């Protein structure tokens, strides 16, 4: 074989970036792989918009079915996003014996096991480097570079939109709503940016990383997620006074039998390496039992970085096609993942430190009532700040605790929020050491 033919479905931001790299870097790609990778077909319903890249004559059409059934296409690249249609396209391509590359994290997180099963059955590759962390090569790192290890910890910032919003809130003092507007204007966020700011996007990515680390599809619905949409400028400033910054953190840990898996805003000490990941950047820290800590940093979204990841998958499949034998790599990187099962730890059992901001009346005895309830639940306070009188006698009382159990914290806050001296629901943020 002298060439590998590629068909892209979805000529949007990432589709255009992928096409551009395949066309403009064709020579270096050919030298690296040892055969020519040809962009043979691109399918999209929109045939008119300017994507800033001119495709060769006859490549662009609105005929996705024709592309999926074209016997000359070796690799189908799905870049339309969404669940239903994308799933049909990928299943059809795999069943037609074509290798598939996708950036669709939602689809893999929620329906990965079905698609991985079809790929394995048909002996073709289903590759998804672009689904997590855009241009950061974190999938290949977990599946190959770190394959000798038991993964002990994955901790990262995996949603660029939220990270951009939090950066604007902390560096420019913007309220949440204004920071979101800025993210939408710059094209980082959809309008409204629900799946980014409510933690779903990061949880999809975490599900994929957990599946790779532990060799079985992660039960996405069991992953705890909480977004940044309740955070206020006040919390950003209090965190700063305590020496922390707030990030939307993605965490997985091997607890031996269970996996801790959660996405939520977290306070990180300013000196923590992830505290210095700002703007729309992503970073992920992965620790293995033998390799120790490793760190990946880069642009988690956008035409060029995500296109770079998609093309890296196309190239690695092309190398396998060239080699001609034993082409299929199990999508989760385990030879036989069928017997494995991942159990996610209940959040009730999480043990961490906490930040509380109580909106309380400024009256004698309030602090002791709050402290009393925390004490009953074995929650030990490490610092307290009370700011001067603000709105009609309501003041923020801010506390940091030592490590406590989440179940106790939830129960204590329910009881505290029922006190008549509390004027609003208490804000709770988990604190990382
Ligand atoms: N919407 C994602 C983010 C990028 O903001 O990080 C695509 O995964």
Question: How is the topology of this model organized?
Answer:
Elements: E1 3-9, H1 13-24, H2 26-33, E2 36-43, E3 60-61, H3 64-69, E4 75-78, H4 84-95, E5 99-102, H5 105-122, E6 126-127, H6 138-145, E7 151-157, H7 160-172, H8 176-185, H9 194-197, H10 200-214, E8 224-225, H11 233-241, E9 244-254, E10 259-269, E11 281-288, E12 292-299, H12 303-323, E13 351-361, H13 366-376, E14 381-386, E15 394-401, E16 404-405, H14 406-417, E17 427-431
Parallel strand pairs: 1-2, 1-4, 2-3, 4-5, 5-6, 8-10, 10-17
Antiparallel strand pairs: 7-9, 7-11, 9-10, 11-12, 13-15, 13-16, 13-17, 14-15
Helix pairs in contact: 1-12, 4-5, 5-10, 7-8, 13-14
L-homoserine binds next to helix 7.
Q: List how many beta strands DSSP finds.
A: 17
The CATH architecture classification of the largest domain is 2-Layer Sandwich
Q: Do you know the CATH topology of the largest domain?
A: Dihydrodipicolinate Reductase, domain 2
First-residue to last-residue Cα separation: 54 Å
Instruction: Report on the biggest sheet.
Output: 11 strands, mixed
Q: What small ligands are held by the chains?
A: L-homoserine
Which structural class do the helices and strands define?
A: alpha/beta
Number of domains: 3
CATH superfamily of the largest domain: Dihydrodipicolinate Reductase, domain 2
Let me know the average pLDDT. 94
Our Rg estimate from Cα atoms comes to: 24 Å
CATH class of the largest domain: Alpha Beta
Spatial shape: elongated
């Amino acid at each position: 074989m002298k060439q590998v033919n590629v068909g892209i479905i979805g000529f949007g931001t990432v589709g255009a970036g992928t096409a551009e790299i395949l066309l403009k870097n064709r020579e270096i790609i050919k030298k690296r792989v040892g055969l020519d990778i040809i962009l043979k077909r691109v399918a999209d319903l929109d045939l008119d918009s300017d994507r800033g890249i001119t495709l060769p004559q006859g490549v662009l059409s609105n005929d996705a079915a024709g592309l999926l059934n074209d016997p000359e296409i070796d690799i189908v690249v799905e870049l339309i996003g969404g669940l239903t249609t994308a799933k049909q396209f990928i299943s059809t391509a795999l069943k037609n014996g074509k290798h598939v590359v996708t950036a669709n994290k939602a689809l893999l997180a929620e329906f990965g096991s079905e698609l991985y099963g079809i790929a394995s059955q048909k002996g073709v590759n289903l590759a998804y480097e672009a689904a997590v962390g855009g241009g950061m090569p974190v999938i290949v790192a977990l599946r190959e570079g770190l394959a000798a290890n038991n993964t002990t910890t994955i901790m990262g910032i995996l949603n660029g939109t939220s990270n951009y919003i939090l950066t604007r809130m902390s560096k420019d003092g913007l309220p949440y709503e204004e920071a979101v507007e800025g993210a939408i204007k710059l094209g980082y966020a959809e309008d409204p940016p629900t799946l980014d700011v409510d933690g779903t996007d990061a949880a999809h990515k975490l599900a994929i990383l957990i599946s790779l680390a532990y060799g079985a599809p992660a039960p996405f619905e069991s992953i705890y997620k909480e977004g940044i949409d309740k955070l206020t400028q006040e919390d950003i400033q209090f965190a700063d006074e305590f020496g922390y910054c707030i990030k939307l953190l993605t965490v997985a840990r091997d607890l031996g039998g269970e996996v801790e898996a959660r996405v939520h805003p977290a306070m990180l000490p300013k000196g923590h390496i992830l505290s210095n990941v700002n703007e729309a950047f992503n970073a992920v820290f992965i620790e293995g039992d033998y390799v120790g800590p490793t760190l990946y940093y880069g642009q988690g979204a956008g035409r060029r970085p995500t296109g770079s990841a998609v093309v890296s998958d196309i190239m690695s499949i092309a190398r396998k096609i060239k080699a001609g034998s034993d082409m299929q790599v199990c999508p989760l990187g385990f030879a036989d993942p069928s017997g494995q099962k991942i159990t996610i730890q209940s959040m009730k059992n999480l043990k961490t430190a906490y930040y509380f901001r109580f909106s309380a009346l400024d009256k004698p005895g309030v602090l002791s009532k709050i402290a009393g309830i925390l004490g009953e639940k074995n929650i030990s306070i490490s610092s307290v700040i009370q700011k001067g009188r603000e709105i009609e006698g309501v003041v923020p009382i801010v506390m940091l605790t030592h490590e406590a159990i989440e179940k106790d914290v939830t129960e204590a806050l329910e009881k505290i929020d029922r006190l008549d001296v509390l004027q609003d629901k208490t804000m709770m943020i988990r604190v990382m050491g």
